[in-house]
Prior knowledge:
The protein has 415 residues and is α/β, with parallel strands linked by helices.
Amino acid sequence: xxxxxxxxxxxxxxxxxxxxxxxxxxxxxxxxxxxxxxxxxxxxxxxxxxxxxxxxxxxxxxxxxxxxxxxxxxxxxxxxxxxxxxxxxxxxxxxxxxxxxxxxxxxxxxxxxxxxxxxxxxxxxxxxxxxxxxxxxxxxxxxxxxxxxxxxxxxxxxxxxxxxxxxxxxxxxxxxxxxxxxxxxxxxxxxxxxxxxxxxxxxxxxxxxxxxxxxxxxxxxxxxxxxxxxxxxxxxxxxxxxxxxxxxxxxxxxxxxxxxxxxxxxxxxxxxxxxxxxxxxxxxxxxxxxxxxxxxxxxxxxxxxxxxxxxxxxxxxxxxxxxxxxxxxxxxxxxxxxxxxxxxxxxxxxxxxxxxxxxxxxxxxxxxxxxxxxxxxxxxxxxxxxxxxxxxxxxxxxxxxxxxxxxxxxxxxxx
Length: 415
Ligand SMILES: [Zn+2]
């Protein structure tokens, strides 16, 4: 039935155009004081405005009293690897003891240890393990999820991961966009020679991507274009093959060094370039001109003890910025995007309002979903959060506190 979220001290509508927002527009949250949001019985937002102007058609609707609280769009996590098997808590202790991420990877740990476990696990068990995590993420306020594969590195296991991601949507009701990240790492069996490595790239382009597109398991493709992973030439090949198959593009870029991934993302017009710890003015200009969303993942910097991407410089350069968790078994298993939003302020130097835009509308725009989620406007899905505070800056000020009181998706309370 119709429902009204009534008399919130502040409704953060993020009303505005569907495209990714940059510069000053990232600070404009479209706040309505003393506002209400009316939701129709189909789970769409029907009306938003000052409560005094609520249309009489909603006089009989069920009321959620939001006095003393803020209402905001559900968070959009546009970069996760949340479907994986097992854990890597042993590496956590190695790293805290001084071992380096790239050194662990070179010894067959890191991504390749998750690949071994994810290849071996049965699909139903992988679904159960992933469901536990995504449920916790939603309890923290995330209502839309991007999920990458990349722990299979061969067709069967990549397919298994993406099937689980689709099941989280179809069977468990989560709002999910999927990304094939078969080019996450060179698998053990392809590390023997340059020819083996080239054959692996061929398999991605000619076998894995076409099969997953045929089975409608992938919305995007992604490449780890960085030192120790794939170089610019290899990454370009994979991304061009993906684009020819109709997939959107995302790139893990410039995380470990100034390795050319961001420029490649701009050259190919990718939806998102992610990490971006090592950028220069030229990279930022290219990203802006190409309209690429710069996705910051400050949780990974915190866990790995790496520098933080300069989010303020990106915003000053006019690049639209998103913030996501990077939730993955190794370099950052954070699930709470509201807390990561605070890290984006303290680490990436965003202002709280910019971080809110980054983790809602801009993240949705990078996933091609801004016409559905990421803002509270008539016609959008009723994915919204009722905060236990009237001031959204408390998400930063009291980072990590349980300030997300209610989570609603499609007008239904889910947490
Ligand atoms: Zn990632």
